[in-house]
């Protein structure tokens, strides 16, 4: 199959900030053309043909104007949530100027007034997304949408906010409008591919974009597979089906790529289907490791990769015995989710403390105690030797220690390997562990081929450009954006600070930085009360931070690190 660029109509539309719908905004907020195809006939509409009225609101009835405070009520560097009558706004004063934007993070609805204000942007206290206070544009992830921006005026020492009722109540605004692009995702289609496609459209790319995935669903919020296991695909979709139609982004589901011919610029699919590309993004993610013991193939043994997997586990686990192998993020989150639903939850792990390599032993023990207080039983420093069945279904899990655990369901979370096997003969540079090697612009060694997400190693500015793999949701978003910008020759380098979170028993651990190889942990607060902040140091430098019930400390540290400043161990002791 050969990709032939379609004839398109290019309509340059400039929409007032307050009237931009979610689908008409970009992560960088710059206005860009919307591209439409109309019966193969091309027409170009220019701005001078459609002058914009001075009043940015089409219908005065759709506008609210409210007096929200006195000019002296806010000092520089302060934020306040204010009521506009039809909803709320976040009022910010920085550098002597007032700004007003949406008050909730579009990702999961965190109150931004509790976030961190720094140098023209506000960072979400929960998951670290960043928004420009002048434009509302999203500047760091997770999430796809920007904040609405509202007009601010000062009259007689009073601050007034003028807002569209639509965005006042909605709280977010999305996409703007494109290069022949092909995004390959043989595993479930995630954030990197979607953000890449959206960014191309936002930046004015008007040619064909095709996203290919082995999954049967449109892109969805994958972290929820282990945090909210009974979610259905349509509930966790990142964008509705109509979005892809509106912005002319093709999605080919249940398609597996078998090889990439970089000389001919052709992707070859398992069924023999071929597709030519101009620019290629490989965002294939990873493949979960499986058990190597006897019985690993039997029914009711799961790697959770899809919403159907998660839903099936919840159904089978209810009032039954569950064994989880691996105290990974996935394993621990699944254990927490099932603890109240299952008759019993047992967790098997090779280490003596969960999360030891990531959070350190002291934090790991505090988390372990929380799980034990919620009826989760740990079997540490052992592994599975056999899975036993009765009438074709799982009945027992036998450990190498000799212990036999009753099990109706087994969930395996023992890590993953990059899904890059199909690239071995491609000429694309793959390291010894199977990761695709990219530079700061997410480019591989092959011109026109980019890679992003869990399957790559890239230079992390925070750690002196050391090549690292950061398999987390926020970073996948940023990879996709950087790749798209450089497909369009912007020359943009990645400089984001890694930010992640895990949720268990209604509590969250937030984490920023890259703590690999840390040699000490400085803890402030009370681990027993699960209210603490842990600073991970290497030599004399803080390289990462984690917290529980200590917001917004992680977002504060992330802002300091993003500014290129060094935090010394003595500063946090």
UniProtKB/TrEMBL annotation:
GO terms for molecular function: 2 iron, 2 sulfur cluster binding; metal ion binding; oxidoreductase activity, acting on NAD(P)H. Its main location: mitochondrion. InterPro entries: FAD-oxidoreductase/Apoptosis, FAD/NAD-bd_sf, FAD/NAD-binding_dom, FAD/NAD-linked_Rdtase_dimer_sf, Reductase_C, Rieske_2Fe-2S, Rieske_2Fe-2S_sf. PROSITE patterns: RIESKE (PS51296). Residues 66-161 form the Rieske domain. Induces apoptosis through a caspase dependent pathway. Reduces mitochondrial membrane potential. This is Apoptosis-inducing factor 3. It comes from Tychaedon coryphoeus (Karoo scrub-robin).
